[in-house]
């Protein structure tokens, strides 16, 4: 009886010993195999991860440069836009009867307001039919630039716009008080008119009137449209062409930093205490809103570009991993015949593609940071990079590699051992 039980126990133990244990793939072995697969083919690994490097680098560069540019826009806003006020001549209910609401002493009246650095009245002159701007007195001769606009402006406009003169200078109150026919022009207009020097006292002809050019400028801090215009004194324009007709006059005011809102509140009363409703002051917009709008627009545009780069990188990893699966069919068959299960093959190739994505993400983070710092140094900006962005960039590369390796890994797991060994 006892011997029979022992025989049954021995037979059961022998049966259990005959059943092979299921193969296991430890995490340590998985990582070592993935690293070995990447390192054994360095050239292919570098080319495969290049798309992720560029995608993540573009991601870091875009967000970093957007933040740095937004900071510079904010600083430039504080220096220029935050110190600029525009006053429009609306005429109120008497617009038809009062073509020009600004008084003759508008420049000096506005200059007495606390916080104002310079102020001037300007409007676009409407030339009569057939009148044109020429460098010669004869109609139809060479040198005609009929499309050039003529701007009537008081001397305060030149002080507020701050043009950079390359030749001569701007006109002043003396020229305006004497209604002198002088003009200042931009360098592009001077080139079109054939004016290369002021030593010969060149003149431009507006209609039948000759205006002596006393200044040529190549840049302005405010009102860039003046670069393509011929600027003449306000009183001279009124005497020849009358008050503004097509467009009502405006006033450009340059203020000290922080005084723009106060100046805008006082401008209408300071200029026309009898009819402040004739004028409307426009203060500068809020700097935070402007910065947020610009930053949002730039961020959305360039973030889309970085997503496209990441997509291209993911396609590159998927394509290369799929080719690697085809080339390593024999290896896959050998692993399967030795006991590796389908999911082990899946995890192996998926880990390799994730490692490529991670390495590409780390390299792209470094590359993008260098690009941001280099551009900021070249333009004398302060680099602004969010630490959260830097920390998340390698993770983005890892996720890109994982997504790119899903299909090739699935294909590798579907390869049958017998078919693989036949190849």
TrEMBL record:
GO terms for molecular function: transmembrane transporter activity. Residues 304-417 form the ABC3 transporter permease C-terminal domain. The chain crosses the membrane at residues 50-70, 301-326, 347-375, 387-407. The lineage of its organism: Bacteria, Bacillati, Actinomycetota, Actinomycetes, Kitasatosporales. It comes from the Bacteria. This is ABC transporter. Coiled coil: none annotated. Residues 45-266 form the MacB-like periplasmic core domain. Belongs to the ABC-4 integral membrane protein family. GO terms for cellular component: plasma membrane. InterPro entries: ABC3_permease_C, MacB_PCD, Macrolide_Exporter_MacB. The keyword Membrane applies. It holds the Pfam family FtsX. It comes from Streptomyces filamentosus NRRL 15998. It is found in: Cell membrane. It is a multi-pass membrane protein. Keywords: Cell membrane, Membrane, Transmembrane, Transmembrane helix.
